[in-house]
Amino acid sequence: MTIRVFVPRDTAAVSVGADRVAAAISAEAERRGAAVEIVRNGSRGLLWLEPLVEVETTAGRVAYGPVVPRDVSSLFEAGWLEGGAHAMRLGPTEEIVWLREQTRLTFARLGLEDPLDLAAYERLGGLVALRCALDLDSRAIIAEIEASGLRGRGGAAFPAHIKWRTVAEQPAGQKYVCCNADEGDSGTFADRMLMEGDPFALLEGMVISGLATGADAGFIYIRSEYPAAIATMSEAVRRFTAAGWLGADVGGSGRRFSVEIRRGAGAYICGEESAMLESLEGKRGTVRAKPPIPAIAGLFGRPTLVHNVLSLGTVPWIIAHGGVAYAAHGSGRSRGTQAFQLGGNVRRGGLVELPFGASIDRLVNGFGGGTASGRPFRTAQLGGPLGAYVDAAMLGLPMDYEALAAAGAMLGHGGIVVFDDSVDMAKMAKFAFEFCAHESCGKCTPCRIGSVRGAETVGEIIAGRDVAANLALVEDLCEVMTDASLCAMGGLTPMPVRSAIRLFGEDFADRLHGETV
Amino acid sequence: MATPQSTTDTGLAIAACALHGNRPTALLEVLHEIRARRGGIDESDLRAVAGALNLSRAEVYGVVSFYGDLRVPAGDPALEVRVCLAEACRSRGAAELAAELEQHGVVVAPVYCLGNCALAPAVVQDGVVHGRADAASVLARIAGVPA
Asked: How far apart (Å, rounded) are the C-alpha atoms in residues A161 and A315?
């Protein structure tokens, strides 16, 4: 009997040798005459254990990891094809506590099969929602989205149903769905993992959103730093189209919906929705002034539903299980689950999908196991490069949009980057300004000039020159950028800067003269 | 940035435009295509693309100069090693890694996030992402020695 062995194809797994491991397993199986079929699945999200290889035994899937090519021979020797004992054996995959304690809804299928196997997708619950949606009218679909409490997962957390309803209510004519897959925030990789690991779910969500809003064309704007996601999504579009789920007659319904993949070109600002629309039109990615909002005048001036990958990727679960079932998870006004991403200096990094409301501590110390370096925890940055730093005293805070906002932080796209006590927060504040200067589209003055002046001024503070006066100047700049920038790039760059100064003032103290802040 | 020298070969640019139906909205894809084939975009490409897509040269130049991927000159050695210098990788010493590589004479280009934040620091060499990178493994790959 041929035994299936799963070796992830996810970029993270490949970055630590999954391709070489797959080749070694294949060669070793051939040498031993063992009947093995290697399936290149998506990652399970336990990234610190990659390459995590699973063997499908009669008693279920058993995980081994992290596997390196030179261990492959000993794994066969240990009888791993029957789930044999080995130093790398992690036990039945579903029993691994790190995975078992999660609530995988958006990522329910992550890592189970070859992500481009459409038959497997259907076997694992795919297309249930789309078939259901084809029998519903626009109002009923939007009512489910409203009941789910889904809010935009890109970071702004705007209620999804309001956007959907606004687009649906625009006069008939050309409308678009644009999926923002320009996931440029450091510490975030959930969009990438969904596109590489369950691409049909994103397409299914897009088709459903098109049915609900009257849009018949969709674009997925993927950053060029994600070549594997671009390749996987492009192939998924071909297969979905060939199977009749995209095109002029979606599922035989007579409804039309097409999807085109577009590549970014190395500009962080194109993750801002209006800059993304400019880029999709073939222009420089400069931010548009609002109003009008994209739901009324978006791509090519037409009504456009703009959503992040995770928002659209969650739609099939909501339609298949009902909005109420989704809203049963979560805390306060943050309903459902969030795919938290643990990265940076953390021992057990990866993708953790949990209902909103989990504490930072549970993520950083529970799932994360503390720092990778073993040194004491000092800070974590939540929500990407425009998010706030938190200190140890804030670890009890729940990961919930409103609770974090009340504490001067933000959840953003769910990324958590951990730092140990060797971090210099003045340097991180300077970097926040430098990054803004590097990536600013240049349209508005507070961002374009404020970021450069900010970096210079923090540089002065680091050099110990006129520290008190320069700190006052930084605060002044932050106020102008927050209040007067056109978009979140300039508007939120002060967030990491101010939180670093507020919580870690000692790093900004006058280094030459020993004065404290 | 577009390199100053021009070639007379505009065939590639014309073909790339035609491949995308000469639609001005496909400008980014057209420029990606030219870069992928030839490694860079030069003055004659700018003019050929502008003509084929019915845009001004300034509009095409404006797009080339805006996007990090498009403004790198052809054959730039900086493309060989890119080190992620965003926050997650910095928390694991990416800035120190880049400095160490430069001491070894490696031309390092920064990149801001490769989505490999749980396996930091991340680098790209010859288009392949490597996680948990250190100077020894990067230098070994440059030397052609498998890590």
From this structure: 11
